[in-house]
Amino acid sequence: MRALALHGGPKARTRPWPAAGPRFGREELKHLREALAQNTLFYTQGRKTRQLCARMARLCGVPCVVPCSSGSAAIHAAVKACGVGPGDEVITSPITDAGTILGVVYEGAIPVFADIDPAAYNITAGSIAQRITPRTRAVIVVHLAGCPADMEPIVALCRRRKLKLIEDCAQAWGARLNGRWVGSFGTFGCFSLNDFKQISCGDGGLVVTRDKALYRHAWLAADKCYDRLGGTRAMEFVAPNYRITELQSAVALAQLGKLPRIARRRHELGERLAAGLRRIPGVIPHHVPRGGYATYWFYLIQLVPAVLGVDVVTFAQAVQAEGIPVRKGYVDPVYLAYPYLQRRSAFNHSDWPFGAAHVVPPYRKGYCPNAETVIANCLFFPLNEWLSAREVDDTLAAIRKVSEHYRSRRPSGSDARKRCSC
Ligand SMILES: *Cc1c(COP(=O)(O)O)cnc(C)c1O
Question: Going by C-beta distance under 8 Å and a sequence separation of 6 or more, which residues neighbour residue 380?
């Protein structure tokens, strides 16, 4: 067996990792020029934002689109439109971005975390059901890393329990389930155009919905309660300025045109990686539900240390030494990672909203055991559309080499040899 690069042996991959290619070019410039020529950059007076919303509606199959300034803004507007307020609970995933729960806490509601599926990394109808109380108002499903959550049972549960359903699609541009876009299953779908997502306009967000009344409410919630659809200016409630500009919409419009190719490429690379990982003992690929089409914003490779006979940190270092840019972990479960949840105080000199809550969830170790285990045992692989099959195959070769090395060193007949069921 070849020695590990970590121990001075030859690397599985010696050529440099490919740099990112150009994301913005002629198409973006064309739309930007047209936007500037309008002599207004205001989102309701120019044409770019309108075109962006129309194109998004066509692509995702949902008729009403609210443009806004970020993915966090999109979720906040949706949360507000769902009627979430003080005393309510909103159930979501613990493995996500701060933007998922920011709007919940701003509205004085309590984020409640359901555990994730141990292989799909998304919350499930079963885990959500365990967290429902009489105070639950809404559920925010996160399609982590562009892998669709198993929506049908979740939609049925929310309908049965009369809960609003928001889909956080910030990482899931172009992801589908049974041919339908994610974001089209819930009351609202929320998308981010920040610079790190599959497509970007620097910063931006879109909310999609089929509900005409909630569409109007979400728009008010994203624009200081100015009614851009009806033209009146009644301040029915307090709402932030989460507007997009024509410049962002111009770039986003061009990016939407590039999305099908980007999504397909990420899908192909992710599926190639998954197929190879399935043949390596001690590693688990992303589980995608039947009928799901994942567009991998990144790829989490889960390790089973008991099978590999090595700890995750050492395994990650060994794969890195082979010339592959993986790292250990993704984000920690937010209920452990966020000081404002730990302190139970989100605003200046106040314990609001936690001090007034009927019950504050146990934001402690053990609250969502699957999430904690997955994060402790995963490798983050930075998948993107500029990689080729070569990078995926080299990654698989490196992981196979490291896996074989450590498995061959385990004491024979040890308990570790038994197949792990987790
Ligand atoms: C990026 C992201 C957000 C927030 O989007 P912004 O545009 O950065 O505000 C929300 N949820 C998830 C899962 C994300 O990855």
Answer: 298, 299, 300, 326, 327, 328, 329, 330
pLDDT at 421 over 60: no
CA of 170 to the centre of ligand 1 (A): 5
> What is the chain's mean pLDDT, rounded?
96
Tokens 């020695």 sit at which residue? 3
- State the Cα–Cα distance between residues 204 and 255, nearest whole angstrom: 12
CA atoms within 13 A on the CB side of 165: 27
Residues contacting 385, CB < 8 A, separation 6+: 21, 261, 262, 265, 266, 269
Nearest residue to 236 via CA among 419, 40, 83: 83
Mean pLDDT for the stretch of residues 202-216: 97
Question: Candidates 140, 182, 192: which one to mutate for ligand 1, based on the most atoms within 8 Å of Cβ?
Answer: 192
Task: Quick: pLDDT tens for 150-176.
Answer: 999 999 999 999 999 999 999 999 999
The closest of 375, 357, 348 to 90, measured between CA atoms, is 357
